[in-house]
């Protein structure tokens, strides 16, 4: 699931376009192109042959003009015409063959790159997703990859094909008449300088455009996901304005690109055209003087004309290559991000010593990687021991770091300092997969995927059977599932039936308990339930909690009462541990947090059975 509220692209991520040359960047595509290299090279070779065939036309023309035409031999002219027709048909067939050769392999290159990107995104740490806007990731997986595929199919081949054709053409021109050939060749040097300068300017415009597409995607995605808030607050105008501004900026960038391209195309067409005009005049004078045969001049000019498209196209081929380089760079920016590190296998991990069982935090320090440098860490020094089989409630003011602390147990974030052990084993030395089968979590925000109820719940334990599923739904008091159109087979999530907040929360809870995990971490799992349902869930949850070691974030006294002991989180430390009664008696802050909740609940009385205001 992409994060939806991450900030727009961090400017630090935008690598200056000039940092790595386009060629070096594009060479990184090689691993993906490798499997299809034979077909691709075959297609390119076919295209080179087809393109060079066009250079044979002038030779045939020269033969016709200097031979049959001069000799007044109609049969010879027909023969020549037949040869030209055959050449034309062959050329067309070869270009068709090229297209057929590359289409399928290149689609598979795109699919492979997209697959790798998706897999990589799944393995990147949560911290990465906190940092990157989802639209930037989406646009990399869609638009950018399409640009890359088109580059492999078209500009890359034709840069080679046209390059070979131009060189072969000029060899022919010089061979026919070196003086006229040099006149035509004269614009080459200034054109190369111009193309080089154009490339770097165009590269930065292309980069800007692609990043802006990413920002635009983010706005579209947020407006769709946040449609209720936008409508509820009547913000569609401002949202539309944000969209319009961004798309206006993008339009500006695209226009800049078009202007640059128009400029270079103009020059690329004009200079050779002028050289051709000069050659035509000089050539005609030479023919008039009898220094040159008419056939040679015809052949010379038609060779030059055959080279027009290859030369004219260089400009936009370079532009497309530049865009492909940018797209590739954007793709690898994500691919180069390090995946979650595996646990460093501690040689001979210590066996559970006496008293080391259960879940233990030792001197745990944590600060978010993207937090400002000067800020205090969220968790300063956490020392806490949840004994084996015990249920510990975690209480603290809002923003005190409870969610952060719970996310450390399944290693969604890496500790800044200290260690966390499960039955004496450091979680840093465990394989992630093992860790995540030991620990089950239910988060504050219950997320359902577009899948059936059963599939959503069984994400918690893939191998669980129907009986376990029923039990888990029972614990979570998710009886409403039976009333759904297709019971547990009903599709929910974005593409399915919409469930209420409390219903989603109960499914998330069922997901956490379905595998009867040894360690259970619940972040305020009952916040959206009415008091009666909450009481029922609590009664059922007691059994599950008795069998596992649990850390439960709680805001209300009723949830706290599920726990054997309570830990109070304050100022980045655990400032008190004890039973609910003990803490009520001995700790003013705890008393304040709990009594506040109680008072508010009483105030809410007739209004809200939802227990609102308790958070
Ligand atoms: N991804 C993040 N990046 C940077 N800072 C974060 C991130 N998530 C949370 N924080 C900060 O960490 C602090 C603790 O947040 P946390 O969500 O752990 O609080 P909490 O105790 O769960 O609050 P609540 O009771 O409202 O759920 C907050 O100041 C918050 O701004
Ligand atoms: Mg929280």
Question: What would you say about this model in short?
Answer:
It is a multi-pass membrane protein. By secondary structure, this protein is of the alpha/beta class.
Keywords, separated by commas or semicolons:
2 domains, Rossmann fold, disordered N terminus, 615 residues, 6-stranded mixed sheet
Rg from alpha-carbon coordinates = 35 Å
The biggest sheet amounts to: 6 strands, mixed
Total strands: the figure is: 12
- The backbone outline, from C-alpha atoms, is elongated
Low-confidence stretches: 1-18, 597-615
Number of distinct helices: 23
Question: How many independent structural domains?
Answer: 2
Q: Kindly state the mean pLDDT as a whole number?
A: 84
CATH architecture of the largest domain: Up-down Bundle
* CATH class label of the largest domain: Mainly Alpha
Could you give the distance between the termini? 26 Å
Largest sheet strand order: 6-9-10-3-11-12
The chain-level structural class is alpha/beta
| Ligand identities | adenosine-5'-triphosphate, magnesium ion
Q: Do you know the CATH topology of the largest domain?
A: ABC transporter transmembrane region fold
Helix coverage percent: 55-70%
Keywords: ATP-binding, Cell membrane, Membrane, Nucleotide-binding, Transmembrane, Transmembrane helix, Transport
GO molecular function, one term: ATP binding
Protein name: ABC transporter ATP-binding protein/permease
Subcellular location: Cell membrane
């Amino acid at each position: 699931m992409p994060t939806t509220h991450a900030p727009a692209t961090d400017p630090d991520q935008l690598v200056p376009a000039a940092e790595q040359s386009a060629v070096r960047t594009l060479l990184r595509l090689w691993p993906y192109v490798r499997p299809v290299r034979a077909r691709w090279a075959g297609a390119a070779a076919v295209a080179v042959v087809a393109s060079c065939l066009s250079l044979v036309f002038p030779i045939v023309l020269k033969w016709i003009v200097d031979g049959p035409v001069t000799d007044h031999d109609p049969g010879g002219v027909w023969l020549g015409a037949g040869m030209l027709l055959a050449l034309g048909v062959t050329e067309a067939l070869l270009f068709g063959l090229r297209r057929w050769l590359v289409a399928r392999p290149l689609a598979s290159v795109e699919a492979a790159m997209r697959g790798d990107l998706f897999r990589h995104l799944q393995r990147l740490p949560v911290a990465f997703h906190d940092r990157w806007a989802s639209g930037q990731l989406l646009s990399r997986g869609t638009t950018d990859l399409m640009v890359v595929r088109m580059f492999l199919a078209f500009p890359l081949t034709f840069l080679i094909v046209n390059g070979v054709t131009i060189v072969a053409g000029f060899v022919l021109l010089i061979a026919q008449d070196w003086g006229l050939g040099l006149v035509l060749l004269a614009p080459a040097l200034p054109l190369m300088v111009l193309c080089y300068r154009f490339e770097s300017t165009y590269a930065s415009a292309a980069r800007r455009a692609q990043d802006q597409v990413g920002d635009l995607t983010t706005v579209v995605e947020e407006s769709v996901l946040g449609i209720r808030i936008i409508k509820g607050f009547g913000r569609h105008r401002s949202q539309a304005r944000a969209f319009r501004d961004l798309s206006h900026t993008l339009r500006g960038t695209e226009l800049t690109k078009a202007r640059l391209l128009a400029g270079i195309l103009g020059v690329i067409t004009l200079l050779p055209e002028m050289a051709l005009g000069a050659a035509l005049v000089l050539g005609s004078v030479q023919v008039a003087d009898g220094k040159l045969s008419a056939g040679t001049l015809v052949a010379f000019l038609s060779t030059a004309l055959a080279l027009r498209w290859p030369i004219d196209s260089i400009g936009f081929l370079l532009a497309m290559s530049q865009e492909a380089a940018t797209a590739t760079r954007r793709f690898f920016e994500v691919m180069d991000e390090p995946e979650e590190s595996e646990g460093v296998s501690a040689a001979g991990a210590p066996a559970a010593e006496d008293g080391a069982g259960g879940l233990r935090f030792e001197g745990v320090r944590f600060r978010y990687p993207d937090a400002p440098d000067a800020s205090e860490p969220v968790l300063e020094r956490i020392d806490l021991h949840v004994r084996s089989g015990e249920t510990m409630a975690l209480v603290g003011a809002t923003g005190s770091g409870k969610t952060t602390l719970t996310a450390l147990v399944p290693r969604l974030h890496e500790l800044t300092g200290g260690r966390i052990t499960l039955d004496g084993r450091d979680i840093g030395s465990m394989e992630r997969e093992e860790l995540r089968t030991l620990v089950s979590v239910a988060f504050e925000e219950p997320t359902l995927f577009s899948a059936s109820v059963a599939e959503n719940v069984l994400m918690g334990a893939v191998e669980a059977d129907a009986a376990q599923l029923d039990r888990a739904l029972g614990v979570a008091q998710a009886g409403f599932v039976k009333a759904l159109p297709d019971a547990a087979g009903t599709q929910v999530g974005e593409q399915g039936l919409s469930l209420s907040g409390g219903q989603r929360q109960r499914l998330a809870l069922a997901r956490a308990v379905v595998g009867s995990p040894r360690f259970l971490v619940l972040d305020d799992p009952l916040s959206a339930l009415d008091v009666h349902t909450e009481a029922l869930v609590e009664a059922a949850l007691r059994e599950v909690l008795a069998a596992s070691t649990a850390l439960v974030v709680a805001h209300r006294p009723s949830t706290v009462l599920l726990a054997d002991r309570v830990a109070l989180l304050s100022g980045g430390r655990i400032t008190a541990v004890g039973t609910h009664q003990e803490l009520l008696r001995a700790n003013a802050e705890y008393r304040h947090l709990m009594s506040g909740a109680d008072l508010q609940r009483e105030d809410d009385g007739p209004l809200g059975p939802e227990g609102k205001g308790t958070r």
